[in-house]
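Section handout 9: paired folding examples.
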Amino acid sequence: MRVNLQPAYVIHSRPYRDTSVILEVFTAEYGRISLVARGTRRQTRRGSKAALLQPFFPLLLSFFGRAELKTLSAIEPVKGMPALRGERLFSGLYMNELLVRLLHRNDAHPALFSAYDCALKALAGIATVDTVLRSFEITLLDELGYGLNLSLDGASGERVNEASHYHYDPELGLVAGSGASGRPAATYSGADLLAMESGEFEGPVRLPAKLLLREVLAAHLGDMPLHSRELFRLKRALSSKRSDAPQS
């Protein structure tokens, strides 16, 4: 198998032996694949190839191999993507971690690749972070076969009522009521769910949308916490301490 100039993004990397790197990349036509980039960290007169293999930058990658771990043979950067900064950088790391945790290798998702590419471009611009992330999360769930129907009661099949409240059931989806007796569950108003269905994720819907998507994703992520979320919390805590420190 030899693939040339495949549109791709690096979503995770780790050192391998003395000068190489093992990459998890998300490609347009082959989904998530693993590549070994041999000699990438070796310094030459032209610098290190590792500088090109960074997250959030569109690339054209050539690779070959029959095994699950394929060999990277060429890298071509695609120009025009601004860097992610601040909170938007952590949002990008969060999306990458979702892809690494939830995508099976060698399972193509061209629509998800397009959504990821659009999300990164939106984060690099002025789009609202919450809208970008919620839209991406919903597309990811749809592509994985866990689509979330925000307008129908998963138990009765009836349309969500604006005046009612619903809870998330991993087997059925959104169901009217507050969950099983003795088990408190987060509830979401029908009005908020219908607003989300229409693509609204800001204003009064911002917090319930965030909580709902977090709850739905947790059912598929398992017990291991997301490192990107912990890093963001740590950064906020450090920033808060600095702002509270007395000025000399």
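Moving on to protein 2 of 2.
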Amino acid sequence: MTDKPVISARDLSLVFETHDGPVQALSNINLDIQAGEFVSLIGPSGCGKTTLLRVIADLEQPTGGAITVNGMSPHEAREKRAYGYVFQQAALFPWRTIESNVGLPLEVMGLDRNEAARRVKHNIALVNLAGFEKKHPWQLSGGMQQRASIARALAVEPAMLLMDEPFGALDEIVRDHLNEQLLKLWAQTKKTVVFVTHSIPEAVFLSTRIVVMSPRPGRIHEIIDCNLGAERPLEIRETLEFQRIAQQVRDGLRAGHSYDD
């Protein structure tokens, strides 16, 4: 990891104007994320974790403070395709095959056809979907569709992945399997990952650091180191260290709620 953060937020705030008056979604966010980290944002619904991810991605505009992505504004980073974004739903076009869905951003970029084909093949294999290139999304399970959406995000060769609860709608067995695959993918690609989740076990299993957020307005309550090493079989969740970190996250979430009136 380098000393210079790839994402840096200082006194970041965001206020939404609504018919009922202003709503402060984020308040006084200060956060640095280094290259190669896997950072999870966790908190209750309405705490601003997805909003913060969307600010990083230039999908929402802050109303106060400052944020840089790779030393640039989020808008510049988006134009330079510095990140890939994975949504809660796979958002694949049903009339396109898996390979043409994965290759769609490369078509938009106007990439050379041979290079685009190479990237599509490489990233489909990376998420273990080789052999399913000619299938359509409706022919795949929900977990396979999400893997295809991750391949699509990786196809533009971004420096980082921004992931908004990509496994939240999946059953526990599939979710565990994809958590394992995501860790292997992270180890292979060395990408910086910012990951939104509601799940304490998922955050602890995946992360190098966990950002615990509290609601109304969304702010960072605590940042917890997750030093479980690079090798993390599912069985690690039964260890005392895993359970200790999970309890620290749980305590942080409870303490964050104590700010409410």
